[in-house]
């Protein structure tokens, strides 16, 4: 199926969902602009993504995924991003085949207590943090609907930590960082080969060069809920490898 030219003109910027017809659950959320992008996902793809696996499973059962339009006629792309992110947060990333939460997540779903901690406490300059720690940037896998176990697992797995660091445990405190905010703190007890300890996450083909830690939640750590900022006042940004050490020397 494709949208006609007239329909695309009326749609404008829109947000859509792929729905499993067997139980009416949404398994993917996306946004588009006056085009047929919503249907492109249903075409054959050589890349075996989680979304493609879900589509194949539905078809093997004798059904076809439904495409539903959640909002259309949106004023601009920014608004479409906001709607998309809000729906992903409402459904929960762990219930979707989306890889990330979407755009605009710095204003996304969170507990009222977390909002208060975020805006009611003063920012923390990272150059002032002297406690040896590792910041793990988990914005790609984080969802506000994760359980504590799921949040712990997406913080501790899977990282390219070097042998010296693993054996010395010089940096014993781990922070889960989302949008520059330390949302959880853990005490690292030991490092293990990726996939070798119990986890709520299911993964295949885990890289043998990756590692995961086991540790304890630090409920009362003073940095939890604080926004970490650089010396120029900007919020700390995620680094390509996904983690960084503090203090900086």
Please give the count of helices. 7
Pick out the low-confidence regions.
Answer: none
Structural class of the helix and strand makeup?
alpha+beta
Radius of gyration: 21 Å
Q: Work out the strand percent.
A: 25-35%
Count every beta strand, where a strand is a DSSP E run of 2 or more residues: 10
Helix share bin:
10-25%
End-to-end C-alpha gap: 58 Å
Helix-strand pattern, N to C?
Answer: HEEHHEHHEEHHEEEEE
Which overall shape is indicated by the principal axes computed on the Cα atoms? globular
Biggest sheet strand order reads 8-7-6-5-10
Q: How would a crystallographer describe the biggest sheet? A: 5 strands, mixed
Number of domains: 2
Mean pLDDT: 89
Polypeptide structure, described:
By secondary structure, the chain is α+β, with helices and mostly antiparallel strands. It folds into two domains: 5-107, GIY-YIG endonuclease (3-Layer(aba) Sandwich), CATH 3.40.1440; 112-246, no CATH class. 24% of the residues lie in helices and 26% in strands. It contains seven helices and ten strands. It has helices at 5-11, 37-40, 50-60, 77-91, 112-120, 148-156, 163-168; strands at 13-20, 25-33, 66-74, 124-125, 133-137, 173-178, 181-193, 211-217, 228-229, 243-246. The strands form three sheets. A five-stranded mixed β-sheet has the order 8-7-6-5-10. The longest helix has 15 residues, at 77-91. The termini are far apart. The model has no long low-confidence stretch (mean pLDDT 89).
């Amino acid at each position: 199926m494709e949208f006609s030219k007239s329909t695309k003109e009326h749609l404008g910027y829109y947000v859509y969902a792929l729905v499993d017809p067997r139980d009416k659950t949404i398994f993917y959320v996306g946004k588009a602009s006056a085009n047929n992008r919503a249907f492109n996902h249903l075409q054959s793809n050589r890349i075996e993504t989680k979304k493609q696996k879900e589509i194949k499973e539905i078809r093997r059962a004798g059904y076809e995924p439904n495409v539903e339009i959640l909002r259309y006629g949106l004023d601009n792309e920014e608004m479409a991003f906001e709607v998309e992110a809000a729906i992903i947060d409402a459904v929960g990333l762990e219930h979707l085949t989306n890889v990330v939460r979407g755009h605009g997540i710095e204003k996304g779903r969170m507990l009222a207590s977390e909002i208060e901690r975020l805006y009611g406490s003063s920012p923390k300059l990272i150059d002032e943090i002297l406690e040896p720690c590792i910041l793990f940037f988990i914005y790609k896998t984080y969802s506000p609907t994760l359980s504590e176990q799921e949040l712990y697992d997406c913080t501790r797995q899977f990282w390219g930590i070097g042998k010296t660091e693993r054996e010395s445990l010089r940096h014993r405190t781990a922070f889960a960082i989302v949008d520059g905010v330390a949302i959880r703190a853990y005490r690292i007890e030991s490092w293990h080969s990726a996939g070798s300890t119990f986890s709520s996450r299911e993964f295949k083909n885990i890289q043998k060069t990756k590692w995961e830690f086991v540790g304890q939640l630090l409920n009362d750590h003073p940095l939890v809920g604080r926004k970490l900022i650089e010396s120029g006042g900007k919020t700390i940004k995620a680094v390509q490898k996904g983690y960084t050490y503090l203090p900086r020397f």
